[in-house]
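step=encode ok
step=design start
structure_in=
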């Protein structure tokens, strides 16, 4: 329940901060043009400038809305699986946030049931959002590891860290991440020390039908 509510709040916040503000600017721009036309303005240069400005706001709003929709359920997650989706997201995160991102894959990647891939992808998203907003980090690593009985996800940054004993875990959606992992019978642990970065470890047991698969964890793939 908490994870769902946190997701709703995140979507509402992004729509308000990005798309909502752009649409407000568009409405104000159109209202200004309407006033100018009602007054019979002949200043075509000003009208053209306003049109270009409104067009720019519209383009930005559309791009931001597409990004929000993509983040909710990126097609690559369904088409190519968790490993490919995480690599894609880390690369995009680096471009958007200016924080060096590295994706590491250990073991042979498997297609997991949809709920497993969704939960792990959401945890990675939330962890990276926290890095961007709070960590003051210059680099972050996302590690996905497949082993004979489990799949693990690590998000580690080199930021300022925090004292979990004094700050608690609720403010940054960390309890929601733990709740998501527990729904799959797994665990999510946050390790952080002031001045030494933060590590979010998530481990969930593989579904029974995948437990007999063999893995080679000796060749990590870095991206």
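sequence_out=
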């Amino acid at each position: 329940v908490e994870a769902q509510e946190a997701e709703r709040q995140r979507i509402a916040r992004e729509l308000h901060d990005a798309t909502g503000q752009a649409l407000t600017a568009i409405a104000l721009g159109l209202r200004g043009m309407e006033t100018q036309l009602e007054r019979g303005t002949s200043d075509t240069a000003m009208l053209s400038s306003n049109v270009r400005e409104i067009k720019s706001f519209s383009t930005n709003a559309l791009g931001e809305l597409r990004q929000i929709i993509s983040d909710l359920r990126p097609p690559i997650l369904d088409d190519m699986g968790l490993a490919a989706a995480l690599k894609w997201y880390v690369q995009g995160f680096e471009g958007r946030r200016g924080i060096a991102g590295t994706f590491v894959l250990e073991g042979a990647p498997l297609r997991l049931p949809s709920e497993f891939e969704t939960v792990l992808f959401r945890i990675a998203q939330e962890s990276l959002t926290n890095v961007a907003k709070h960590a003051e980090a210059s680099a972050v690593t996302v590690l996905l590891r497949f082993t004979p009985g489990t799949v693990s996800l690590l998000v580690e940054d080199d930021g300022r860290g925090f004292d979990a004993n004094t700050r608690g875990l609720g403010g940054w959606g960390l309890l929601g991440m733990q709740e998501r992992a527990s729904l799959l019978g797994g665990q999510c642990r946050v390790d952080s020390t002031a001045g030494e970065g933060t590590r979010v470890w998530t481990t969930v047991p593989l579904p029974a039908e995948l437990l007999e698969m063999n893995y080679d964890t000796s060749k990590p793939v870095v991206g």
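step=design ok
step=annotate ok -> Confidence is low (pLDDT under 50) at residues 214-219.
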